[in-house]
């Protein structure tokens, strides 16, 4: 699904030198590369503050802690996403309010957001799923109307551009109050272990998130708030510093691969290709098809026999997971999410796909679904 070795070979000299520099200085925690990567990412995103942390899940948790959300407060997010988004809501004693998504873009349904706002609602967490932004202009309008916080889960869409109706542009994750990302190795900007970051243009929120991620201290041994230990390792920052320079190039390679898939599958009624919205670029963390009248299990098995991996993101909706079942989250109340979980299939998507490989994948998919 992802060729990290092939990608590494192209940047090996830079990456190896960066890692060796960290080893030479032995500044393994909060070394120079962390500060340099932070500054580089702030410039790339055109955002005032980037706060690196240990992983994307921590980023979401720290963001919610910094916003001062209290036990019992409700946080709205999508049921069609990875568990981490809702997991941290529950871990903090908050109430995850799951809603349905749009059938074409897979992003959170703004009408469903509005229907589920109550007096207890304090925040919205839109997930920019598979590499494309949610409808941030409308989400921010809803948040302003109801005095809600917006935390963007941008783990799958770093580098995507969102264009507002007035022509203004912003990077994914810099539109809401806080953006949260993961640098898991398979992400579009991935390190060689775990890593994450938060972004914000709010000075006070940045200060709080930095404190929380460092045991609640702004001065050593002075703890103003309860915090946690969540830091980006210097070695991982050294890797990310190199890879950030190639991020737009990586996005272009993914977009080229997606265009190849689109053309190959365009006229097949059994395969619905991803829909792009006019307000957002798509950086294709995943290339996800919707199958129509195809035995998905059989197709995956047959593709595997031909050396082609295919994954299901996600096979079980969050509202059907045991951890999130409640009277509020009933099977049948999320028709789009449930249909997607039964029919989606993701094909290999990464920076090293060449036309020969793409042609082989497409040829076999078309043979097997017809």
Q: What does this protein look like?
A:
- The longest helix has 22 residues.
- This protein has a seven-stranded mixed sheet with strand order 1-9-8-5-4-2-3, sandwiched between helices. A three-stranded antiparallel sheet has the order 12-13-14.
- The mean pLDDT is 97.
- Helix 2 runs parallel beside helix 8.
- The protein folds into two domains: 241 residues, Type I PLP-dependent aspartate aminotransferase-like (Major domain) (Aspartate Aminotransferase, domain 2, 3-Layer(aba) Sandwich), CATH 3.40.640; 123 residues, Alpha-Beta Complex (Aspartate Aminotransferase, domain 1), CATH 3.90.1150.10.
- It is an alpha/beta fold.
Secondary structure layout plus pairing:
Elements lengths: L3 H22 L6 H14 L3 E5 L2 H11 L7 E5 L5 H8 L3 E5 L10 H6 L5 E5 L10 H11 L2 E5 L7 E3 L5 E3 L6 E5 L13 E5 L2 H11 L3 E3 L2 E2 L10 H11 L2 H19 L5 E2 L14 E5 L4 H10 L29 H9 E4 L7 H15 L1
Parallel strand pairs: 2-3, 2-4, 4-5, 5-8
Antiparallel strand pairs: 1-9, 6-7, 8-9, 10-11, 12-13, 13-14
Helix pairs in contact: 1-8, 2-8, 3-4, 3-7, 9-12
Strand order of the largest sheet: 1-9-8-5-4-2-3
Any low-confidence stretches, pLDDT <50, length ≥5? none
Q: Oligomeric form of this entry?
A: single chain
The largest sheet, given as strand count, sense and whether it forms a barrel, is: 7 strands, mixed
Order of helices and strands: HHEHEHEHEHEEEEEHEEHHEEHHEH
Structural class: alpha/beta
């Amino acid at each position: 699904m992802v060729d990290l070795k092939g990608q590494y070979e192209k940047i090996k000299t830079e990456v190896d030198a960066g890692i060796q520099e960290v080893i030479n200085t032995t500044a393994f925690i909060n070394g120079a590369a962390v500060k340099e990567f932070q500054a580089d990412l702030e410039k790339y995103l055109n955002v005032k503050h980037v706060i690196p942390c240990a992983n994307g899940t921590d980023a979401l948790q720290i963001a919610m802690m910094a916003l001062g959300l209290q036990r019992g407060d409700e946080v709205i997010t999508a049921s069609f996403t990875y568990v981490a988004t809702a997991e941290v809501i529950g871990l903090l004693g908050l109430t995850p309010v799951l809603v349905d998504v749009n059938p074409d873009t897979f992003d959170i349904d703004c009408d469903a957001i509005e229907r589920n706002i109550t007096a207890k609602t304090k925040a919205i967490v839109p997930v920019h799923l598979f590499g494309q932004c949610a409808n941030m202009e409308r989400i921010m309008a809803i948040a302003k109307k109801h005095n809600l916080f917006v935390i963007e889960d941008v783990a799958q869409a770093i580098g995507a551009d969102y264009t507002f109706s007035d022509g203004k542009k912003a990077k994914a994750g810099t539109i809401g109050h806080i953006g949260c990302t993961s640098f898991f190795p398979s992400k579009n900007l991935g390190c060689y272990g775990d890593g994450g970051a938060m972004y914000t243009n709010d000075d006070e929120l940045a200060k709080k998130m930095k404190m929380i991620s460092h045991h609640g201290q702004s001065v050593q041994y002075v703890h103003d708030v309860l915090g946690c230990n969540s830091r980006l390792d210097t070695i991982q920052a050294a890797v990310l510093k190199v890879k950030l320079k190639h991020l737009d190039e990586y996005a272009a390679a993914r977009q080229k691969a997606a265009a190849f898939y689109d053309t190959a599958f365009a006229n097949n009624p059994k395969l619905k290709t991803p829909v792009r919205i006019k307000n957002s670029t798509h950086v294709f963390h995943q290339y996800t098809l919707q199958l129509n009248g195809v035995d998905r299990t059989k197709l995956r098995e047959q593709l595997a026999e031909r050396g082609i991996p295919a994954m299901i993101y996600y096979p079980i909706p969050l509202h059907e997971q045991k951890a999130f079942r409640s009277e509020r989250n009933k099977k049948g109340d999320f028709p789009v999410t449930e249909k997607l979980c039964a029919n989606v299939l993701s094909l290999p998507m990464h920076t090293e796909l060449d036309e020969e490989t793409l042609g082989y994948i497409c040829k076999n998919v078309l043979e097997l679904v017809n």
